[in-house]
Amino acid sequence: MYARLVRFSLGPGGETKAQELANELGALISVQPGCQAVTVFGDHGEGEYGIYVLWDTQENADTAAGVVRPRLNEHLAGNVTAPPETRLFEVLWSK
User: The domain at 2-90 falls in which architecture?
Assistant: First the structure.
């Protein structure tokens, strides 16, 4: 099992954009083959947000990234101060 973590900053006042992103990308990610769970989270006060996804295999995680990343980039274009931080981790334990 693998976990993809994406973190990005929309800055204070980004609540509406964050919710739009969460609604669209959460639904898109959840139907990708191998998706075990998806969570979109954030701190409205700080304007910091992220996406956490559990995948059954690295291959499915990588394939989904090709579908999801362009949509994420569209949402973030002109709304972030730096590129999002994206990492893929092997899951050591999960319940």
Answer: 2-Layer Sandwich (3.30)
